[in-house]
Amino acid sequence: MSKIKNKALISVANKEGIVEFAKALKRMGFEIIATGGTQKLLSDNSIEAIKISDYTGGSESERVKTLSQRIAKEILETGDIGLVVCNLYPFFAQKDKPLEEMIELIDIGGVTLIRAAAKNYKKVCVVHDPNQYEYVIGALQKDQADENLRLELAKNAFDYIAWYDAIIAGYFTPDFASRRYFAAAAERFIPLRYGENPHQKAAFYLNRIYQDGFKIHGGKEISYNNILDADVAFGTAIEFTEEIACAIIKHQTPCGVALGENQPEAFERAYMADSLSAFGGIVGLNRKLEPDTAELIIKHFFEVIIAPAYDEKALEILHKKKNLRIVELDPELIEPMVYRPVFGGILAQERDLADLKDWEVVTKRPPDDYETAALKFAWKVVKWAKSNSVVFAIKGRTVGIGAGQTSRVGAVEIALRQSVDRSAGIVMASDAFFPFRDGIDTAAKGGVTAVIQPGGSKRDQEVIDACNEQDMAMVFTHLRHFRH
Fold first, then answer.
1. What is the pLDDT of residue 173?
2. DSSP 8-state secondary structure symbol assigned to residue 131
3. Which of 35, 107, 303, 308 places its Cα 20 to 30 Å from the Cα of 413?
4. One of 251, 288, 319, 395 is an active-site residue; which one?
5. What b/e sequence results for 58-75 when a residue is b if at least 16 CB atoms lie within 10 Å of its CB, and e otherwise?
């Protein structure tokens, strides 16, 4: 059957555009059945619509008004109801409500209507999104609401209710470790020109609950790679909760991270750490962006600035760089879970939120006060560098970062080359243990005086001996920070 029957059931929580849509249906001769609030809105706008309780002859309560055998039969079997227009209670739009109120926002009848109509797409057309109204009306007017179109709408409908159920499941069981099934309750939020490369399609999906927490204040269209880098830039910066911090990122790894007595100082020190790599980078800040910092930023070429908030004057200054993407992010959007697709499945894990609580001094000499502060700083930074990674740092600033290497000594050599302008006061952090002493010997040539690393190698004693021979302090954290 190619044509649908001219009877429509309308039940919408989001009533945007429904009056105009229903008027168009009436002009095409559709008989309309509607649920309470929808029927009243249509009636108030002089659109004739049968109240669903009158149509079914039932006296159902609010919870079960659409769970009627007649309705189900006319959608699932006969197709007498040829058009179902339905969207769901806004469970996704609620925040900080008690469980009793959230329970009432779980849509049952609407999901049943949508699922039934989508299942019987050969006879029924299902519409769930106000953005579909114009398209569907056009198809009906041209007698083109055929089976292919209805199948496409059915696919979209199943996608919609799967998303809706994923939101509910996430609300009831936010701890992914206790869930048996995985579902990400995200919807297309920002279309992207392409993915990592121009031949790859891409989009940014985000849970509707969190969409108000991600704002773009200007600049060119944001890209897939921009968002990946911005995630690391912001994560690195907010790693520091007590201090004013700035992180500059390239290709998902830090190239300069620094603290400052004030924000402009933090930015300048981060830029100084590796000004060559900072070109075209992403700047992350852990405080509201100030005008003085904005003035410094626009002197250089950056792709993205990301911060938890912006001073209005700072935004005016940044807007002088027309292509600069300006992102504001609520720190609450940093999810406690990270995941990635692999082999047709999904790897999921807790985010690495472990903080350094204590360490074990394993060398003859403990770190002095200066080295202690520098080591704690470097340990926070190395967590955000791609493994294998090491970070050379002075107190409150990186001076060299070797990341993403296949050998640990190779990472040390890169960090050493970047820190040639420093000869004293340098410490080194390593995200995992040193398998051989060569990394220590290489670091010593660059003036490193103290090391922080997890420990756990079969050759730990060899590495400890290397430090003692060169009067270096070393501490074990017994905590690893791999980031692949």
1. 84
2. G
3. 303
4. 251
5. beeeeeebbebeebeebb
Q: What's the predicted TM-score (pTM) here?
A: 0.86
Q: How far apart are CA 434 and CA 409, in angstroms?
A: 8
Q: List CB contacts of 117: < 8 A, sequence separation 6 or more.
A: 75, 84, 86, 124, 125, 126, 154, 157
Distance (Å, rounded) from C-alpha 96 to C-alpha 7? Answer: 40
State residue 61's pLDDT score: 61
User: Residue 1: its pLDDT value, please?
Assistant: 46
Integer Cα distance of 294 and 288 in angstroms: 11
Q: What tens digit of pLDDT does each residue of 233-281 get?
A: 999 999 999 999 999 999 999 999 999 999 999 999 999 999 999 999 9
Given CA atoms 252, 258, 262, 267 in this order, what sign does their dihedral have? negative
119 in active site? yes
Strand partners, 348: 339
- Give the relative orientation of helices 133-141 and 18-27 as an angle to the nearest 10 degrees: 10
pLDDT at 59: 59
| Chain position carrying tokens 């609620």 | 94
User: pLDDT tens across 310-324, in order?
Assistant: 999 999 999 999 999
pLDDT score for 177: 76
Question: In what helix (H) or strand (E) does residue 305 lie, and over which residues does it extend?
Answer: strand 302-307
Please state the separation of Cα 244 from the chain's center in Å.
Answer: 24
Cβ atoms of 401 and 274 within 8 Å: the answer is: yes
Going by C-alpha positions, the residue among 265, 253, 267 that lies closest to residue 305 is: 267
Domains and their CATH numbers in the chain: 7-172 (3.40.50.1380), 187-333 (3.40.140.20), 360-476 (3.40.140.20)
CB atoms within 10 A of CB 276: 7
DSSP strands (E only) in 182-275: 187-192, 202-206, 214-218, 244-250, 253-260
Give the SS3 label for residue 66: coil
Looking at this protein, which amino acid is placed at residue 176? Answer: F
Two tokens at 301? 């070429």
Measuring CA to CA, which residue among 416, 411, 409 is closest to residue 437? 409
Listed as ranges, residues in the chain with pLDDT below 70 are: 1-2, 59-63, 65, 422-423
Whether 398 contacts 390, CB under 8 Å: no
Q: Which of 26, 119, 288, 300 is catalytic?
A: 119
